[in-house]
Design a protein that fits this description.
Blueprint lengths: L5 H10 L4 H23 L2 E4 L3 E4 H16 L3 H4 L1 H8 L14 H12 L6 H10 L2 H26 L2 E2 L5 E2 L2 H11 L3 H38 L11 H16 L2 H30 L4 H13 L7 H17 L5 H6 L7 H8 L1 H20 L2 H4 L5 H10 L5 H32 L3 H20 L3 H42 L7
Antiparallel strand pairs: 1-2, 3-4
């Protein structure tokens, strides 16, 4: 995916649509061995006493989330109220370093996680793991709030304020600077560069090409499928999408925040209301849906591989969706205007809750209450979700398409920012390097709309998981510093030193 020769190959593909199939195949053939190797490592099955096997990456993420939930004494629940006050601007400090408000930082980070995975990924999880996967998805979202708290606090704590007032933060900074404080500068630099390289790959793949490809697929699907007038015109869709993406990302984090702070609530409201309408229209099946979710979580059908199999499907879907422990959101949250890093960690708690506990659960309930899981046998991803919405009202898939495109767009602009910060960490913080990366990103928007690169997509999502490896190592090492800051902050709140009176 990072092979810049793709930029030249794009020109030949634009000139001859008939070559698209061979183009797809040649890239897949080139990247498949690498994709399989990376994916194979992170999906290696690890034996667990008494319960079976689970992929290494799922254990890595879930253990960390559980550890931080216990280490910070259930911070994901006990500080929920303070987080809401911060989101509402009760402690915004305009004089502090930073570029965006708490709400804008949360919106930008949410736009990077609330995407097509909430529509397509949940449908796949439910179709593979059964309704019970929904329960474990929710559990993973709740404990993932603790991981998100730690990484986003660190993102602010170790950020750099550049000469022009812009912010450079995220795992690259707290890995390099935090480990240097512990006299492990070499290890910190290695982990930071490793994270940055994986982040660039994930930005161009899962945060870009996948989003463009799947949103175009849904648009083509509702306009006739294989008979659609859009067949063979992915390049046109890509150019239009790249134009709007370019206009947004050229404004930096402030421009992105202005768009996402309006777009994320809008698309969230559209999708949630539409989903609730469908669920309400099938209200008589809601009780049975919850029964299927709970019974399936602990007593799955034999063919689904037992409780552990369903649990893994749910946890894996949640990890893809909310990225808790991956470290990507810390890049966006680090740009907040605040003089107390803990405040942004408490705001970030809401991200997995909204993304996984709320939006993903609504998608699952729509699929289960409409009976689409049984009637659409063999159908997965966006088509399954689209079929579920269509059972309520025939034109609802058009609403879903609008939501899908908005989800894809918002995810892309946020991941463009993540990619820029990772790119400039390696090649230097200056406008020239920022613009080079943005041009590359926009080319990949068009590329992703045109072709079907299964190996690229598999590799890009493996890189998302790979980001969690150095990130979580850093979280373990730096968690005591976060705990110290948290205790001071909560004491100040209790004693009235810090008040939320706005």
């Amino acid at each position: 995916m990072k092979n810049q020769g793709l930029l030249l190959l794009l020109l030949s593909t634009l000139s001859s649509q008939s070559k698209a199939t061979s183009f797809d195949e040649s890239i897949n053939d080139f990247l498949s061995p690498v994709a399989n190797a990376v994916d194979g490592f992170f999906m290696t099955q690890i034996p667990l006493p008494f319960i079976g096997h689970a992929p290494f990456i799922v254990i890595w993420l879930v253990f960390a989330a559980t550890f931080f939930t216990l280490y910070f004494k259930f911070i994901n629940f006990r500080s929920f109220g303070i987080g809401m006050k911060l989101i509402r601007g009760k402690y915004d400090t305009n004089t502090a370093d930073g570029e965006v408000t708490h709400f804008q930082a949360l919106s930008t980070a949410l736009s990077g996680t609330v995407g097509l995975g909430n529509i397509a990924g949940v449908a796949t999880a439910v179709s593979v793991g059964g309704p019970g996967a929904t329960f474990w998805m929710i559990i993973a979202g709740l404990i993932g709030m603790s991981s998100k708290f730690v990484e986003c606090t660190l993102g602010v704590k170790y950020r750099d304020v550049l000469p022009d007032g812009t912010i450079a933060g995220g795992p690259m900074k707290y890995l390099s600077k935090g480990f240097a404080e512990k006299n492990m500068k070499g290890l910190g630099q290695f982990l930071a560069v490793f994270f940055a390289v994986m982040c660039i790959g994930a930005s161009l793949g899962g945060g870009n090409m996948f989003q463009a490809n799947q949103s175009f697929a849904q648009l083509q699907n509702i306009t006739g499928g294989s008979d659609s007038f859009l067949v063979g015109k992915g390049w046109l869709f890509g150019l239009i999408l790249a134009t709007f993406t370019g206009i947004t990302i050229m404004g930096g984090i402030k421009g992105i925040a202005k768009v996402t702070s309006k777009l994320v609530p809008l698309m969230g409201i559209i999708y949630v209301i539409t989903g609730l309408i469908v669920i309400f229209m099938n209200f008589e099946h809601l009780g049975n849906a919850f029964n299927q979710i709970f019974s399936g979580a602990f007593n799955p059908e034999a063919g689904l591989g037992g409780v552990v199999g369903v649990l893994i499907v749910g946890f894996q879907r949640a990890a893809f969706s909310n990225e808790a422990g991956v470290g990507s959101a810390a890049i966006a949250h680090s740009a907040v205007k605040t003089d107390k890093p803990i405040t942004e960690g408490l705001v970030a708690l809401y991200e997995p809750f909204i993304d996984t506990v709320l939006v993903c659960t609504i998608t699952a309930l729509v699929i289960i209450t409409t009976g689409s899981l049984e009637s659409s046998e063999g159908v997965q991803g966006i088509p399954l979700t689209s079929d579920a919405f269509a059972t309520a009202v025939s034109w609802f898939p058009y609403v879903l398409t609008v939501a899908a495109i908005l989800f894809a767009f918002s995810t892309m602009v946020s991941w463009a920012y993540y990619g820029v910060r990772a790119w400039t960490y390696i090649f230097g913080h200056n406008k020239t390097q920022e613009n080079i990366y943005k041009v590359i990103f926009l080319v990949f928007v068009v590329l992703g709309s045109m072709i079907n690169l299964s190996a690229v997509i598999a590799f890009s999502f493996s890189m998302v998981f790979a980001m969690s490896f150095p990130n979580i190592i850093g979280l373990y090492f730096l968690a005591p510093a976060v705990k110290k800051d948290l205790n001071v902050f909560l004491t100040d709140v209790r004693t009235g030193v810090i008040s939320f009176t706005k």
